[in-house]
Amino acid sequence: MRFIINGGKSLSGKIRVQGSKNAATKMMVASLLTDEECILENFPQIGDTEITAELCRSIGSKIDVREGTARIKTRNIKNPVAVSFTRRNRIPILTLGPLLARAGKAEVPVLGGDKIGPRPVDLHLDALRALGAEINILEDRFRASASAGLKGAKIQFKFPSVGATENVILAAVLAKGKTTIKNAATEPEVIDLIKMLQKMGAIIGLGANRIIYIEGVKKLKGVVHKILPDRNEAVSFACLSVGTNGKIKIKNAVQEHLITFLNALRRIGGEYQVEADGITFWGERVLEASELETDTHPGFMTDWQQPFAVLLTQAEGVSVIHETIYEDRFGYAEDLNLMGANIKVFSKCLGELPCRFNGQNHNHSAVISGPTLLKDAKLKVRDLRSGITHIIAALIAQGESVVEGIEEIDRGYEKIDERLRKLGANIKRLN
Fold this sequence. Notes:
The protein is α+β, with helices and mostly antiparallel strands. It has two domains: about 1-20 and about 230-430, Enolpyruvate transferase domain (UDP-n-acetylglucosamine1-carboxyvinyl-transferase, Chain), CATH 3.65.10.10; about 20-225, UDP-n-acetylglucosamine1-carboxyvinyl-transferase, Chain. It contains 13 helices and 23 strands. It has helices at about 20-30, 45-60, 95-105, 120-130, 160-170, 190-200, 230-245, 260-270, 305-315, 330-340, 385-395, 405-410, 415-420, and strands at about 1-5, 10-15, 40, 60-65, 70-75, 105-110, 135, 140-145, 155, 180, 205, 210-215, 225, 245-250, 270-275, 280-285, 290-295, 315-320, 340-345, 365-370, 380, 400-405, 425-430. Helix 1 (about 20-30) packs parallel to helix 2 (about 45-60) and helix 7 (about 230-245) packs parallel to helix 11 (about 385-395). It is globular and about 65 Å long.
């Protein structure tokens, strides 16, 4: 499928942020920890939640999704094997904890999802082994067992990985004894997962300096939980507003989740007003070049740098982006250059933050010279966030652009074309 987009028009109006993709999928997995019904409100009906629903159903869940609410009940684990979901997304690895807790064994596939790096899972596997799991790595799957059950452990990550932190939490809540996670990820989506698990009966504490404490319990109960708004959607629409010289109110956007982005946006000339039910964004002045580095929360999120880069192509001067989270996240630069942008990528660290990729042959820094006039082009979506970047660039550009491979965008943005048309966008979906 593809989008046909005619750009060069200011977009204005109101758009509502949906429930967080990165939270919803993990909460669906969390529902496997109980045999009682879990109700998830503000539920996004997107590609990744559909895939995760298929995964949960294959394990034994009954799932009903309608009008933004998902009801999930897994009375019994019927099938602890989810290998058929190989490379469809990265969620299966997170089922290891719940399956080991309730069935004592599990088989899950190697990771899939966005093409932004290999996403090694050594942090996940080492942590689960520390909790008592036996894990064999086969060609296409991980085979795990915990015949004696999982037991609490002290775990320290070398890097605050969101996925690994969530995996340990999901495994430890039903383990025997206490678990301590040092250098844990503390993103809003992780905290929201903790809030859901607390409602279910888990005992989870937050300490200073990225420490999470978990006391295992014998049983968890059902829950009703409202998923937090998707901060990546909010940033995408904010960049679209400023980039098209429009004025868009983003309903449900949460200032607390966007502080670092809001500062970066104001530095380059974007403006916003925080209101009771959301945030309104617009361009205050001619955009100015800037420097930014991605970092773990509360730093500038890696998922934000792609749409923000489009704004920097319209800014006066030379901007620098240093990506410290994923080693292969500048694939979109080639596409923006086709549209008239001036972006050069480098393997050197062009920033001040300590970086895991220092001295390695990964293009993880970018220099953007602007402003440049963006023109129409034929684009192929490389991953979810580059996909929304293509849409923003095409709506800024003059002429008619074609964006192919939009299934990747549908993984994370619900009915994106319909919602953008309400802002005045000229965007059409074709099979």
